[in-house]
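Q: Structure tokens for this one, please.
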Amino acid sequence: MLTTSEGTANEKKTRTSTWELDPAHSSAEFAVKHLMVSTVTGRFKKLAGRIFLDETNPGNSRAEAEIDTASVDTGIADRDTHLRSADFFDVANHATMTFRSRRIEVESDDRARLFGDLTIRGVTRPVTLDVTYDGEIKDPWGNRRRGFTADGVLYRKDFGMTWNQILDAGGVLVGDKIKITLNVEAVEKR
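A: Here is the predicted structure, written as tokens:
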């Protein structure tokens, strides 16, 4: 952490830096149960975000992100079309989902819990992400880059995504619990 003293030895100046998510080296992925026995995974191809890092007091940092819901990709065109429909993301009316952090609890030098508000389909709910700091490097062009991995769980019904089919043998076609993983490479904005 970088701190500088001005005036008395007890006064510290906060150093805040802004980091832009590198979309070519970042991903937003999800996993959900299918037929209650297997897991289907997918990702969003278009995302953007910023981290406002208080390097003196990381607990004062904040993050925001935006994901293009039409960029959903599970590798199956028909399934992706259904996910873009009003049954799920309703892309025609809700082109993006957003995340805004509210607070951060730093647990160690490389672990934190990020609390924030996630908006999907115009519905905002609190979510908690477990964040791991993966390190920093200076790239070949002289830019500082930092890596983070964030994991969490959300429930699609909380966001109005209630479409499902009941199975003859019991259970449902699509699970409600969604596991999310964000792999973020961020570049310091100069």
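A few notes: DSSP finds one helix and 13 strands in the chain. The chain has one domain: 15-188.
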